Every structure is written in C-alpha cells, then in structure tokens.
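Section handout, structural biology tutorial.
Before the tutorial, make sure you can parse a SMILES string by hand: atoms, branches in parentheses, ring closures as digits. In the record below the ligand is NAP, and the chain has 295 residues. In the tutorial you will relate the predicted structure tokens back to the input. Do not try to memorize them.
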Amino acid sequence: MPVSFQEIDAKPPRFELPTLNFELAYDRPVSLQSLHGRVVAITGASAGIGRACAERCASEGAAVVLSARRADRLHEVAAAITAGGGRALVVPGDVTSEADMRTLVDRAVATFGQLDVMIANAGIGFHGSLGETTAEVMRRLIDVNVMGTYYAARAAHEAFVKQQTGHLIVISSIAGRRGVAGTAAYSATKAAQIGFVESLRAEYAGTNIHASLVYPVSTPTEFHDVMQQNFGHAVRGVGPKQTAADVARAIADCIVSPTPEVYPYRRAWLLALVSVAAPGLADRLVQKYGRRRPA
Ligand SMILES: NC(=O)c1ccc[n+]([C@@H]2O[C@H](COP(=O)([O-])OP(=O)(O)OC[C@H]3O[C@@H](n4cnc5c(N)ncnc54)[C@H](OP(=O)(O)O)[C@@H]3O)[C@@H](O)[C@H]2O)c1
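Predicted structure of the complex:
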C-alpha cells in the first residue's frame, strides 16, 4: 500500500488512543436495490477500490460508468456486472486529460440521461524521503491525484449544476489527514484533495449538490505493485487494514445518506482529531505508524 499511518508496528503504540464505539452511517443494513436508478461514474474503476465501488454500486441497482486507462480491464469489470444483471458503461480515459473527463461525463449523461455521482478515485502513490522525491515524481503525483481529481470534479460539476443535483465523492487517504515519514509527496496530494472538497462543500451549501471525502486506511489492492512498477520500490505495510469491499460499502452508504466525511476504518478519525488538537503528540504517535520498504 502507499503511505498511511495505519501501518502499526508489531509493538503497540506508546500512547493508546481511546476507543469510542458509536454507529456511523455506513452501518446501514444492506438493501440490494438502494441505489436503484442512480448513475455513478467512477475513475480508476479497473482495479482496487474503484472496481469494488463499481461492483457494490451496481449490485445495489446503480448504472455504473467505468473509467481508467486499461480498457480491457474495464470491459472485464463491466462484463461481470452485466452478467449479474447490472448496468455498466465503459468509457476509457486518463484522469490527467481534461478532455477525457469531459467525455466521461458526456457519455454518462448521453447514455443514462443524468449523472448522479462522480467518484474521483484514480490515484497513485510514492514512498521515499524528500531527498528521493524528485520534481518529476512530485509533478506526476500532482498530475494524477490533484489535477485528476480537479478534472473529474469540474466535468461533473457542470452536469450537477445543470441538473441542480449531484454528489462528488473524492477518495483521499488517512495519509492526507496526517503525513508520516516517507509520504511527503503522496500526503501533500491527498491533503490537497481535502482542501478542495471542503471548499466545494461551502460553495454547494444550501443546494442539492453534495461533496464528500473518504479516508481509507491501508487497503490491499494493486497500489503497491503499481508503485513498484512506477518507481522501482514497494513498501511493506503492517497494522490495521480494511478490504476494498469495506471501503466500497462505506461509499455506497455515503451515496444513500450523504455525509461530509467517511472513515471506512472507524478509529482512523481519532488520528485526525489528535493531529489537530495535539500535533506534537501526533508526531510521536506516528513514529509507530507508517510504511516501510522491505529490507
Ligand atoms: N490502497 C490503499 O492502501 C489506499 C489507502 C488510502 C487511500 N487510497 C486511495 O484510493 C484510491 C484507489 O487506490 P487503490 O488502492 O484502489 O489502487 P489501485 O489498485 O492501484 O487502483 C488505482 C486505479 O487508478 C487508476 N489510475 C491510475 N492512474 C490513472 C490515470 N492517470 N488515469 C486514469 N486512471 C488511473 C488505475 O487504472 P489504470 O491503470 O487502468 O488507468 C486503477 O484503476 C487512490 O486514490 C489511493 O490514493 C488507497
């Protein structure tokens, strides 16, 4: 996995965070047709969390519009969905292309008559010290994670404003709430998504357009493999994890009942809280978290 504080060492942290048990929206009982009639576009739908979102939303009755660069993988996802009685449209594209994101929204509206939800999920990671973070790496992460989110959101915004309804869901990371060693570039892009969506929520206040942030912790997907391919190294993760299906379930629930922020791994919000209330304590806490390169 990428970054993320969620990698806890085998040893327990020196400062134990209290555990609060309260029910969040994503505990809603599953209703198989609860997204019936919605149209959901997903970037990065060829793998991992994006694919899980596509499968979950389709299984709850939504028509899903699948975007990523690997068209063959998107067609596999779509075939599995349609074989199960769902509706899926493949619109291959690169999130770093403004034109591709406009095409994604246009094709969704042309095919299904509307766009209810845009899940801006496509993203890449990088693990390395600042000395190892070249300007090229930094630009690549900004292009995919920040500009990609902007292009998807901007294209969806136009449809949402015309319809006077819509929901933007951005997949950030707990690493955007609190950086740890080796994640400066990645955390910066994930924090940028937070400021972007918080501001949009203020812009959309009083309208029927929603904007939500999702903060997954470490989630086994292809993320590490891609990091290895892109940058020549992988990272080892230990500690709390959730599955892509867990994240997708939390996102489906956020579509049904829009909430500003979603922590699919519930206790992760405590790190965000400590980070604001006691940043020095958070600095010490995260020494115990983080990702490591394999020896
Ligand atoms: N896995 C984790 O531990 C974790 C934790 C917190 C947050 N997240 C966030 O969750 C999101 C999804 O990550 P994941 O774990 O599911 O990773 P993944 O398995 O590697 O999937 C990433 C997806 O993004 C797509 N993508 C990458 N670059 C793209 C580009 N330029 N244009 C269009 N699509 C692109 C990939 O499709 P193609 O290669 O086919 O284009 C793929 O579908 C990311 O934003 C990540 O930061 C992940």
